[in-house]
Each structure stands twice: as C-alpha cells, then as structure tokens.
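Weekly modeling sync, notes
Attendees: S.R. (lead), two postdocs, one rotation student

Agenda item 3: backlog of single-chain predictions. S.R. asked that every request posted to the team notebook include the full sequence so nobody has to chase files. The rotation student volunteered to paste the first one in as an example of the format we agreed on. Action items at the bottom.

Example entry:
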Amino acid sequence: MAAETVAANAGPLQRLSGEVTHLLASLDPTSIFGNSEHLVRIKSFGEWTISVNLIYFLIASVVIIWLGFMVAKRMSIVPKGRFINSAEFLIEFVRNNVASIVKHDPKKYEPFLLTAFFFVLVNNLIGLIPGTHPGTGIIGGTLALAVVVLVYFNMVGIKEKGFFKYWAGLVPHGVPAPIAPVIWIIEIVSMLIRPVSLAIRLFANIYAGHIILGIFALLTGLFAEATIQGLGAYIAASPGWAILLIAMYVLELVVAFVQAYVFSLLTAVYIDSAVGSH
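Predicted structure, as returned to the notebook:
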C-alpha cells in the first residue's frame, strides 16, 4: 500500500518509465500475428485466432471499398464538394506522380497502384486513432503487403514478356556468359530483398510515429494529472506538452501520406523494372 501511495504521488517524469514500458509492450511490433494480448479467438475454428491488427486491415479494406463506391457515385464532369475534390486530387496525384513512373502502358497498372496507395494511407490514418492496432504498425503486416507487391510485379513481368524470357532477362544484355549465372543469382537475391526493405521502411516509420505520439500523449496526461493534483512545479509545462502533442499529430498526418506515397512509388519502380526492357 505504501509503495502504491508513493507511486501515485510521484512526479510525471518518475512515472514515465513504467508507462512507456507498458506502451511498448502493447504495441508488440515483432509478432507477425500482433500482440498475444490482443487476439480474437474464433471458437468455430478450434484453436484459430486472429489479431486485432488483422481486424484493422479488414476495416481498412471496408473503408476503401466504401470510399470507392462513394467516389464512383458522386463522380461528374465538374467535381462538386470537398469530398469528391479531395478524392480526385489524390487520384490524380497517384496517376501523375506514381503511375507515370511505369513507362510501358502505365494505365494498366493504375488500379493496383491506387489500391496500394489508399490501402497504406487508410491504415496509417487509422493508426492515428488512439487505441488502434493497424496492420502497418507491425512488421508482419507490412511484410504481407510487400509480398503482395513482389508477387504482383513478377506476375505482370511474366505476362508481359513470357515466363522464360522474363527470368532470363534478369541478366542485362552484354554480360559475359561465364559470369551470367552469378549475376542472375545476385538479381534473384536482390529481388527477394526488395519486399523486406519495403516492409521495414514502412513499418519503421509508422511504428516510430506510434511510439512518439504515445510518449507525448503520456507526458500530456501525466503533467495534466499533476496539475490537477496541484503539483505547482508541473503546472506551467502541462499546456506545452499538449501543444507539442498536437504538433506531432499534424506531423504524423504528413508522414502517413508520405509513407503511402513512398510505398506506391517504389511499387511503381518495381513494376517498371519488371515490364520494361533491360
């Protein structure tokens, strides 16, 4: 009881360490299936379980489908309303700055690139809602997205060039025959590394943002609590942490868009490499 009283009367900075430890444990980024404390068990399937992160992936999918129907319903020659204008701006942005990277028939790949952009974006934005566990916040979620990209750009490359020509084309023209097998193996390894780097880049930025927002939110709450308790030394700092938290939220909104852009941009680069000539 005495220890609990001391803990309750401790200042915000003294209590921060324990709160951060709890925050990091709740995020659990290393598990492919998310935090074991946040699993939803499906009795009909025996021991099968799904993570809350996967549920948010499904929620993001539903949101994107709903947005697609809404945009299609309200689309007109002259866009009207903030919603349709914002949607058209983002669609045109992806077309002009992402899909255009693919030199060979870019319109063919616009649906996939738009889906990749909006799926990552919606998941990132969901992650800014306190208490959520979006798929882009764990390495398993981003790796799953990256594997989809890997399968897709190889499939379109094979469809465009043919199975044997595509895989043989990994070796640039003019490479001496004796070292061609070595170059081919290096290219295969490089191809397999692409989804790993794609997944880590997205995960690291989103996870770091979650930690930063979480810490700032904890500091804001702890200092506000100290202010309410009348600990005068912390009263002046309480509004400052609240302002910093708002600023970090604005910054993370920008990061959410930037990371969706980077993910779709690199996807376009990989598609262009697969369907283009070496």
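Discussion: group reviewed the output briefly. The mean pLDDT is 80.
Action items: rotation student to repeat for the remaining queue; S.R. to check formatting next week.
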